[in-house]
Amino acid sequence: MNNPQPKISQLNTDRLILRQWLPSDSQPFARMSADPRVMQSLLGPIDAKASAAMQQKITDLIAEKTWGFWALELKQTGQFIGFAGLHIPIAELPFSPCVEIGWRLAFEHWGKGYATEAARAALAFGFNTLKLDEIVSFTALSNHKSQAVMERLAMQRDPLSFMHLKVPAGHPLQEHCLYRLSKPII
Ligand SMILES: CC(C)(COP(=O)(O)OP(=O)(O)OC[C@H]1O[C@@H](n2cnc3c(N)ncnc32)[C@H](O)[C@@H]1OP(=O)(O)O)[C@@H](O)C(=O)NCCC(=O)NCCS
Questions:
Q1: Range of the domain at 53
Q2: Is residue 82 part of a domain?
Q3: Is the CB of 147 under 6 A from ligand 1?
């Protein structure tokens, strides 16, 4: 008999559902992937084909692991507003192996606390369900909005920055800061 498929994790917060991606997310995701404001710290906008490829990769990883960069759905409207969650970085990083927490919202949903709200649920899942000892987050030095999310989550900034090898040498986005959060002691 075949093993049953592992159940995909879905998280709930007051205002959000963190869930597996749906085919209907592809249009709103392509719109945010094409938005220079959203992609400013991520080496710029990507086209619909690259956005679909990224969506497929994230979907496959969630299907395989049951967790990942979940799609964010607004409970009140059912609208897809971006993604947030946990991910094992593919790139070799100075602090690998690690599990990172990350987020990306459509521009019109910035400034409402959604990234922090989703991240709190993802951190709880990482520490309580996955039993991780540490979760990290990193971003370009100029990405102050993302660093503000890390600070709100009480993550601790490492004194040293690092050069992200996936970013071309000499590019203004190459230097990254690293934040860490250890498993809470209960
Ligand atoms: C990084 C990113 C997700 C941060 O979004 P954000 O909206 O600033 O962060 P949050 O969703 O946590 O919202 C916090 C803001 O909402 C405000 N807010 C409004 N209503 C709120 C509520 N009910 N609860 C909590 N905060 C609320 C907060 O005061 C805060 O405002 P401030 O930025 O003026 O201090 C967003 O800028 C983004 O998608 N950027 C592009 C992608 C990216 O760079 N990702 C990171 C790559 S490493």
A1: 11-182
A2: yes
A3: no
How far apart CA 126 and CA 183 sit, in angstroms, is: 9
Q: Please give the average pLDDT of every successive group of 10 residues along the chain, which has 186 residues.
A: 79 98 98 98 97 98 98 98 97 94 98 98 98 98 98 97 93 97 86
CA-nearest residue, atom 30 of ligand 1: 111
Q: How far apart are CA 144 and CA 146, in angstroms?
A: 5
1 assigned to some structural domain? no
Ligand 1 closest atom vs CA 139: 48
Q: Total domain count for the chain?
A: 1
Whether this prediction's pTM lies above 0.90 is answered by yes
Q: Are 99 and 136 in contact (CB under 8 A)?
A: yes
Counting from 1 in the atom list of ligand 1, the atom nearest the Cα of 152 is 12
Task: Decide: 173 in ligand 1 pocket, CB within 6 A.
Answer: no
**Which two tokens mark 125?**
């899942």
Residue 62 is which amino acid? I
